[in-house]
Amino acid sequence: MKKIIILALILMLPLVQAGADISVKTAYTNPYPVEPGKNFVLGIEVSNIGDEEAKNLFVGLSPSSPFAVIDKPSDIITSLSPSGVRIIEYKMFVDSSAVSSIYQIPVNIRYSGSNDITRNVLVRVQGKPNIGYVDIPSFSISPGETKSMQVEIKNLGSGTAKRVIATLTPLTDNIKVVFSGGNSFLDEIQPNNKKNAVFKIYASPDTSYGVYDAIIKVVYEDESGNIQTKNFSVGIFVTGKPNIKIIKVSTDVSKNELKVDVVNDGNAEARAIKGELMIGESIIDVDYISKINAQKSSTLKFDIPQTKDNKADIKISYVGADNEEYSFKQTISWVNQPKINWLLVAIVIIVIYIILKNYGKNIIGAFKKSRK
């Protein structure tokens, strides 16, 4: 009896194994790995590992977020013989929100005489970091000052930027980094995120008002460990203020001029300098200077006013580099140089000439005798 049962099982075994058996797997993706926010081609290898032909073989994708099929989502293979292999390509898109990982995409399979079957193929998604943006929000430094400067560094890519190091290099001797303050270590920056690099810098006391060029070099690794380098040009704003002072008051009587020498003792340009000569509350004369650079001087000129004590007030107003307005009022005094009476000088010269002409020999002779 046992022999009969064993023989029956052996005879039934081919019947159980007979039939098509379809398997699917990822043949390739182009590109590899797939980058978030980009299109790609998914190649699926369809194999018949069974013993019979598979007819009217339906292969369709059922992707879910973050994937989508751009072109037709399914294909029909008319016939796939045992041990047969076919490659089917699908044009797909992966959303920019996809994080780096290995994803499963369901594949629906159906052929003559079979039920609906679902298999999964694997797709590797890996983002690419892109340090594509740096900014210096609301920063300024004054001459002679040491200050920490924050710089926003943003990852505009789809992958994590790892081991991020930012280095600041000023392109002028007036701006210097303080010790190791030119390097900033940020560890990693996630996609569409930013971090602040902090640099400690010093502006020399003789630095003029303006924007000074510098380079920020950012070195980082992508998710595969490849080193990337980006250079960015930035501007460091050095602020400053003009400071107009009166250094000398003099007169030129021959021209009837009162001269007021002024110097810009600040570290920024002074513009639209206006001098108003006043007696009491009355403005009696006005003069203008278009600009005075830092540590430079110029002269305001007025008609000499007729006052009893040779004193008057002067109000000086001017504008700074950032259009700030400055003004001050000061009392000045001067000494009038006596006028030369050229008629009297001419008469004296004529008299001397006549005397020398008529009596010069006698005068010289008397002088020689007195020397003996």
Write the topology of this structure.
Elements (H helix, E strand, L loop, with lengths): L1 H16 L4 E9 L8 E10 L5 E8 L5 E3 L4 E7 L4 E10 L6 E10 L6 E9 L5 E5 L10 E10 L5 E10 L4 E3 L5 E7 L3 E11 L6 E12 L5 E12 L5 E9 L4 E8 L5 E10 L2 E11 L4 E7 L7 E9 L5 E9 L8 H30 L1
Antiparallel strand pairs: 1-2, 2-6, 3-5, 3-7, 4-6, 7-8, 9-10, 10-14, 11-13, 11-15, 12-14, 15-16, 17-18, 18-21, 19-20, 19-22, 22-23
Summarize the structure.
This protein is mainly beta and 372 residues long.
Q: Count the strands?
A: 23
Describe the oligomeric state of these chains in a short phrase.
single chain
Radius of gyration: 47 Å
Indicate the CATH class of the largest domain.
Answer: Mainly Beta
Q: If you average the pLDDT, what whole number results?
A: 88
Strand content: over 45%
Name the CATH homologous superfamily of the largest domain: Immunoglobulins
Count of all domains? 3
How far apart are the termini?
179 Å
Globally, the shape reads rod-shaped
CATH fold-level assignment of the largest domain: Immunoglobulin-like
Put simply, the count of helices is: 2
Helix content: 10-25%
Strand order in space, largest sheet: 1-2-6-4
Helix and strand succession?
Answer: HEEEEEEEEEEEEEEEEEEEEEEEH
Which parts are unreliable, with pLDDT below 50 for 5 consecutive residues or more? Answer: 11-17
